[in-house]
Write a structure and sequence with these properties.
The complex is a heterodimer. Chain A has 14 helices and 12 strands. Chain A is α/β, with parallel strands linked by helices. Chain A folds into 2 domains: 150 residues, Rossmann fold (3-Layer(aba) Sandwich); 153 residues, Rossmann fold, CATH 3.40.50.720. In chain A, strands 9-8-7-6-10-11-12 form a 7-stranded mixed sheet. A 5-stranded mixed sheet of chain A has the order 1-2-4-3-5. Chain B is α/β, with parallel strands linked by helices. In chain B, strand 1 and strand 2 form a beta hairpin. Chain B has 2 domains: 150 residues, Rossmann fold, CATH 3.40.50; 154 residues, NAD(P)-binding Rossmann-like Domain (Rossmann fold, 3-Layer(aba) Sandwich). The relative contact order of chain B is 0.14. The longest helix of chain B has 26 residues. In chain B, the strands form 2 sheets. Chain B has a 7-stranded mixed sheet with strand order 9-8-7-6-10-11-12. Chain B has a 5-stranded mixed sheet with strand order 1-2-4-3-5. Classes of the chains: A alpha/beta, B alpha/beta. Chains A and B meet through helix 2, strand 1, strand 2 and helix 4 of A and helix 2, strand 1, strand 2 and helix 4 of B. Strand 1 of chain A pairs antiparallel with strand 1 of chain B.
């Protein structure tokens, strides 16, 4: 699916484009075009059969001028430093746009989780955490779930990290990781946070455009956590889900697919393609579906020179990281399709991670209403900043989002200067 | 320093892996431990901004690779060189693990550096670059965790800046107890007497042992030196006391020869005035690189960069002994040729281990708030090097193998024992 330029290449392209437009200070541009730290760890883990296997883990810390590094940990057999670098960089921009005091990082282990037992995964996770040592920490670099990692894995990271601390400091270190299980210090609303943020943004977009979400139609690519939650949260608005694509194929129903029904089905069946209340369609037909909103919530590089001309929608709301490549972007602009860019659109996750971090730090526990209303305020004001920057600079929303991020970081560097 | 493209080929790390596998096969190293030792533990890459004298900001890339710390804190040099890359640093870090294990000192292996041509920067810029690099490494170095030391293009002044920066980030009451975060410091800042000549001194102690074993008289023996930096020049100065005769020298500026003998003291004085280089030395004639390697002598001391003795150059050598002052001067092909030709080799991880041994002594003196005199340092170094030499010689006999493989076997057996005793966390 990935062809031509990689995600990491066009993250750099976006930065350069926006930096040119705002005439970003060349020194600050030099700093932001590199990651600060890249840590590679090779560690041995004893397998269930007594053999030792070696694993390679990564942690890339892009920038922490706004606050502690923060970013996901993914488990993937093809994980490489380029991908982690791009993800870490995007985290810096997300936090800057959302105006939260966090920097950008990302990491993971090169690993196929389905090839290991539960016990092995626990030992691998713990040994990785141990290897990172002081390179992570609640006020230094905060981890979160990402591809193939979940609340259970975050709990193991928490437990391992705390076990290496002096006993009297342990309780004050719970915010070394976010996305924890609720009982272990997680936040209410963290599971749906990315999707909730997207729905808040879609609501705001509809308000701006005088568009009625009731009866609006949409399609979702990827029915994992982000895709399925977005659909479930759009249901109360009376919007209609026309088509869904998963890794096993795509389905459609002109009468609308019930998100709750599909979520329940996927939980039992494992994939969407055998869902009885819709018909199977191919990838091309899926993309050509006439609808109001398209939500890519799967992989990178989905909207390209090849696929962008097929789209027949008013808005693309990017739940995934990097779903649109620069060619795809140009075509969407030519066709007059609005885009809520990834670094704004899916930032609900990092915002609620910040709330979880805050709750741990303050020894507080917020109600769901409090989390949701604070998320709403943060993400709508970020939306406003991006919209205003797009108007001011007469540019597309992605470039505008980068402008918001780069100029806020530029202001901080100007004041703080370079140590020593 | 010579960095001739003729000798350079392939990856230095591949050479290390080749040497490691050969020894591991012969000694039947435990498969799990083999897996662990064939990879580095941590690799840290830092990109950091530094303000130049003209106000501009320049970005630099620094590395620290930590190969293994089963025997003690990571330990290894920092080099400032435009060709520094992860492959080279990985190889050098791995060699440090073997050296620590071989000489029986409680240190693991690490190496690092900055990809930079230090001669392009002012002293003030170099200070800021060094300080910002130290700051960027943060808790990834420390007196009981990872201890840098001087290497190519770094010196006691740079170590003093690292020390000062590191302790400045510590709470005031811990600063004095952290002086051993770096070794190779200036004497006044906590350095050890004898650290400057330590690698050369170790080279000479191994040559003495070899001569004793072979019934060979060093008085009047002839030798060649490649590289006339810290290691090459100290080796020559110390061999002079034995009455040995230096007949040819090579460095980055070219090679010189005088069959009547070159006085090392005089050549050092000349180089000091000549920007550290030997070219134009009036009391010897200029020769080319090939002629240097072909010079008939008893001993050849390569003390420059990696991959100098290869399939191409090894057949030229006309010596009885190669004493490897440099790290990795001989590649696997070169090794085979030397063995076929019956030339003895004192392998790098034994021959140049004097540097890390006296680094360990400096670290110990700081840790104990002591200050040893030169006799104490030298006699302790002598004991360490001679006993490592004997272990390697005896192992070579026992396994009927070459000395490099024997040195690896000594190092790997010690690591294997420790891993078997301690097991794998968690």
């Amino acid at each position: 699916m990935v062809k031509g330029k990689k995600f990491c290449d066009y993250v750099i392209e976006h930065v350069n484009q926006s930096a040119d437009l705002i005439a970003l200070d060349p020194d600050i541009r030099g700093i932001l075009s590199k990651t600060i730290n890249e840590i590679i760890v090779n560690f041995p883990v004893k397998m269930d059969d007594g053999r030792i296997e070696m694993f390679t883990g990564f942690r890339v810390q892009h920038n922490n001028v706004l606050g502690p590094f923060e970013g996901g940990v993914r488990f993937h057999p093809a994980l490489d430093i380029d991908e982690v670098r791009a993800l870490a960089t995007c985290m810096t921009w997300k936090a800057a746009i959302a105006n939260i005091p966090m920097g950008g990082a990302s990491g993971g282990i090169r690993l196929n989780p389905s090839q290991h037992t539960f016990g092995e995964l626990e030992r691998i996770t713990r040994r990785f955490t141990f290897s990172l040592g002081n390179n992570i920490g609640p006020e230094y670099d905060v981890l979160a779930p990402d591809l193939s990692t979940n609340a259970q894995i975050m709990a193991w990271i928490l437990d391992t990290y705390l076990s290496t601390m002096p006993p009297r400091q342990r309780q004050a270190c719970k915010h070394v990781v976010t996305g924890k299980p609720i009982k272990s210090g997680g936040s209410l609303g963290r599971d749906k946070a990315t999707a909730q943020g997207m729905v808040f943004l879609i609501e705001q977009w509809a308000r701006d455009k005088g568009f009625n979400l009731k009866g609006a139609t949409y399609m979702v690519q990827g029915f994992g956590k982000v895709g399925s939650w977005t659909a479930r949260l759009l249901k109360p608005h009376g919007a209609k889900l026309l088509a869904v694509e998963g890794f096993t194929g795509a389905i459609a129903s002109p009468e609308g697919i019930d998100p709750e029904g599909l979520t329940n089905f996927v939980q039992k069946d494992g994939s969407i393609s055998r869902y009885p209340k819709a018909k199977l369609i191919d990838h091309k037909t899926f993309l050509q579906t006439q609808a109001d909103i398209f939500i890519p919530a799967a992989l990178e590089n989905q909207i390209t020179a090849g696929t962008a001309p097929l789209l027949n929608v008013k808005l693309v709301a990017e739940g995934a990281n990097g779903p649109t490549d620069p060619d795809g972007d140009r075509i969407l602009q030519e066709k007059g399709i609005d885009v809520i860019p990834d670094i704004l659109c899916n930032s609900g996750g990092v915002i609620v991670s910040y709330f979880e971090w805050l709750q741990n730090k303050r020894s507080e526990f917020w109600e769901l209403e409090e989390v949701d209303s604070k998320l709403h305020k943060k993400i709508v004001s970020a939306y406003g900043r991006v919209r205003d920057a797009a108007q001011e600079f007469h540019t597309d929303w992605r470039t505008a989002a980068y402008i918001v991020a780069l100029s806020s970081i530029e202001r901080v560097y100007r004041k703080r200067g370079i140590f020593p | 320093m010579t960095d001739t493209p003729v000798g350079r080929k392939g990856s230095v790390y591949d050479n290390v892996v080749w040497q490691f596998n050969k020894a591991a096969d012969l000694m039947k190293l435990d498969l799990d431990i083999r897996k662990i030792l064939s990879q580095t533990t941590n690799e840290i890459i830092v990109n950091f901004p530094v303000k130049m004298d003209d106000g501009r900001i320049e970005m630099f890339t620094g590395y620290r690779v930590q190969h293994n710390n089963a025997l003690g804190p990571f330990k290894g040099g920092l080099r400032f060189h435009p060709a520094v890359d992860i492959d080279e640093v990985r190889a050098l870090a791995t060699w440090m693990t073997w050296k620590g294990a071989l000489t029986n000192i409680p240190f693991g292996g690490a190496k690092g550096g900055i990809q930079i041509d230090p001669f392009k920067y002012t002293l003030n810029e170099l200070e800021r670059i060094t300080r910002r690099f130290t700051f960027a490494l943060g808790n990834n170095i420390g007196p009981e965790y990872d201890i840098p030391a001087p290497d190519v293009n770094t010196n006691p002044q740079i170590m003093a800046w690292i020390l000062d920066t590191y302790v400045s980030t510590m709470p005031p009451d811990e600063r004095q107890a952290c002086i051993h975060v770096v070794t190779g410091k200036p004497i006044e800042s906590g350095g050890s007497i004898g650290r400057d000549k330590a690698t050369g001194q170790g080279v000479v102690y191994t040559i003495e042992e070899w001569a004793k074993d072979k019934g060979f008289n060093l008085e009047g023996a002839t030798y060649l030196v490649q590289g006339f930096g810290n290691v090459g020049s100290w080796t020559a100065l110390l061999l002079k006391q034995h009455g040995s005769k230096l007949i040819a020298v090579e460095d980055a500026s070219g090679a010189i020869a005088n069959l009547e003998g070159i006085d090392p003291v005089d050549l050092v004085a000349y180089a000091k005035k000549n920007g550290g280089l030997i070219s134009g030395y009036p009391k010897a004639k200029s020769i080319d690189r090939k002629s240097l390697l072909q010079t008939k002598a008893d001993i050849f001391v390569p003390a420059a960069l990696e991959n100098q003795i290869t399939a191409d150059t090894a057949p030229w050598l006309n010596v009885k002994l190669v004493a490897e002052g440099a790290n990795g001067p001989t590649d696997p092909d070169g090794d085979r040729v030397l063995q076929q030709r019956g030339i003895d080799v004192i392998p790098d991880i034994l021959c140049n281990a004097g540097g890390v041994v006296v680094s360990y002594f400096e670290w110990l003196q700081n840790k104990r708030s002591e200050f040893w005199d030169l006799e104490e340092v030298d006699s302790k170094l002598h004991r360490k090097i001679v006993s490592a030499y004997e272990r390697v010689r005896d192992t070579a006999k026992k396994f009927r193998t070459d000395w490099r493989t024997a040195a690896y076997i000594v190092a790997l057996s010690r690591l294997e024992t420790v891993y078997k005793e301690r097991g794998i966390f968690p």
